[in-house]
Design a protein that fits this description.
Strand content: 5-15%
Structural class: alpha/beta
Distance between the termini: 63 Å
Oligomer: single chain
Mean pLDDT: 84
Helix content: 25-40%
Length: 529
């Protein structure tokens, strides 16, 4: 009798005999030895002295008027919120999740052998001719972007955001990246910040304490130490960001705001008597005065911790929430996702990275990867659903360092779903994708050039044997240019792609004509939300 195989839970580490023992934080994360560390959330320490209320204590008109001159924006810079998922270890994206095709686009199908390498047996592949309306086996285009109909990512997204599909559209970027290395500069957040994204509290956040906020690096030419991402991977990280001091422990929130306003006025009067002959004096006066304005604003907006705490947001947790209380309490990845999406989608941070570990899942079975992909899909869907509930657009980008491939062996277990087992790393099968939520209707494919609009849904292409055609786009064989392509598309959603060459003068995306071919969608906002 053959020994029954035991499949791994989503949080179990992956021990590969063909890999060295993990020694770096990146290796621990990719093999699942490190995950989101959040604990079951108890009430914040703020609750010991805060005086909760239903609404802000409005600032006095004179102090409110100073917020604009001090650069205090309560909803950030007004750019489209941006969240990226960094699936550490080399997750499958192409074929079994997002469909990829040859030069004709997503539905210019690969060979049977090519799909087998992407984990799809012959009885689960799309038709090997250009489809007509009645021929859509194993193709699901509910999200605009075509997924395999049994994609675990898709199932998770539909579970959490299934009612929002009419407002979602997406694009895929075939692009190889190296396996099992920390040297992939995948993370675009610094460039997103350069493109104008900013938050009312923080510029950038990420679920790892790293220069990029995630597992993969950021392009070195884009690094800006002044906006290094703040680590957020649990609700207490969020509530701990705002310190209103002990004033609210002594006074109620309304009185505390009034005290801070009075301090600002007294300070302004005293500073008014300071000689301002030197420009430096005027600058110091402005910084001091604006510091008190900001303190009053923080006491006004964040004296009540429920303003920030995702665990207390009924749209996120509870009977009508995106996550049930049991889901939220039982899974640190859900708490991590909730914390990042709360900050970014509400404009408290301009962009955020959610890094998820354990995606180096070539374990000789299929179920391990399917289970982890399903959970990642649920987290992606949660972000899309929360954007819908808040009523703002969202660009969500998904990438991984490298990818995996199958040798054609089938896993017929319940969770294996009759698909090909993942048997090894394979950087040539890699791809990234992004989805756009638009509350005013689904984003429309780019119409600013002579290409058929559908050609903009797949930026670059695969060879028939399921390997990236490395000459198909600037991004296809250069991770730095993959990042630039993502930033270009973020700017295009604002109608600002013409500014790309000015913001990134050393870019490698070529002429404006080539950049048009790399653009997926027409603008969904005019400059700002």
């Amino acid at each position: 009798m053959s020994k029954k195989q035991r499949y791994l839970s989503p949080d179990e580490p992956l021990r590969h005999p063909d890999h060295r023992r993990p020694v770096t934080r990146r290796e621990f994360l990719s093999q699942g030895f490190l995950t989101g560390l959040g604990l079951v959330t108890a009430p914040s320490i703020f609750s010991l002295f805060a005086n909760p209320r239903a609404a802000y204590a409005a600032l006095s008109p004179d102090v409110e008027a100073l917020k604009a001159s001090c650069g205090i924006a309560t909803q950030g810079a007004g750019k489209i919120p941006f969240i990226c998922f960094d699936l550490a270890g080399g997750a499958n994206i192409s074929g079994s999740n997002v469909l990829v095709g040859k030069q004709g686009g997503q539905l210019d199908f690969l060979t049977t052998a090519g799909y087998s390498k992407l984990g799809l047996p012959g009885d689960m592949i799309p038709p090997l001719v250009n489809p007509v309306a009645s021929t859509n086996d194993f193709i699901n285009s509910d999200l605009g972007l075509a997924f395999h109909s049994d994609s675990a990512f898709l199932r998770g997204i539909q579970e959490k955001a299934g009612a929002r599909v009419a407002n979602i559209n997406g694009a895929v970027i075939p692009a190889r990246s190296d396996n099992d290395t920390g040297n992939n500069p995948h993370n675009p957040m610094y460039g997103i910040y350069q493109a104008g994204a900013d938050g009312s509290l923080l510029s950038l956040i990420g679920s790892r304490n790293s220069d990029s906020g995630g597992n993969s690096l950021a392009p070195v030419t884009m690094l800006d130490p002044a906006v290094r991402p703040t680590k957020v991977d649990r609700p207490t990280d969020v509530t701990g960001m705002v310190d209103t001091g002990q004033l609210i422990g002594v006074l109620n929130q309304s009185d505390a705001v009034a005290v801070m306003e009075s301090i600002q006025r007294i300070s302004a009067m005293k500073l008014g008597s300071v000689d301002t002959k030197l420009t430096a004096d005027a600058v110091i006066k402005d910084l001091v005065n604006c510091g008190y304005v900001k303190a009053a604003d923080i006491a006004d907006r964040f004296g009540d911790p429920s303003t920030l705490n995702p665990a207390l947001d009924p749209a996120i947790v509870g009977a009508s929430g995106i996550f049930s209380q049991t889901e939220f309490d039982g899974d640190s990845e859900f708490r991590k996702t909730a914390s990042v999406m709360k900050m970014v989608i509400n404009g408290f941070a301009g962009a955020g990275t959610i890094s998820m570990g354990g995606y180096d899942y070539h374990t000789g079975d299929r179920s391990t990867g399917e289970i982890r992909d399903l959970r990642a899909g649920r987290c992606m869907g949660a972000c899309l659903e929360y954007a819908a509930r808040v009523g703002v657009p969202l660009m969500m980008y998904v990438f991984s360092d490298g990818s995996v491939a199958s040798n054609g062996t089938i896993d017929n277990s319940v969770d294996g779903r009759g698909k090909g087992v993942w048997t090894g790393d394979n950087s040539s099968t890699a791809a990234s994708f992004f989805l756009v939520y638009d509350p005013n209707g689904g984003a429309q494919l780019f119409t600013g050039d002579n290409l058929p609009p559908e050609q903009h849904r797949q930026i670059g292409y695969f060879r028939a044997d399921a390997s990236v055609e490395t000459a198909s786009s600037p991004a296809a064989n250069n991770v730095n240019l993959l990042v630039e392509t993502v930033i270009l598309n973020y700017m295009a959603l604002h109608g600002e792609q013409a500014n790309f060459a000015t913001l990134f003068p050393g870019h490698g995306l070529g002429s404006s004509t080539l950049m048009d071919s790399l653009t997926a969608f027409n603008p969904i906002v005019s400059g700002t939300i």
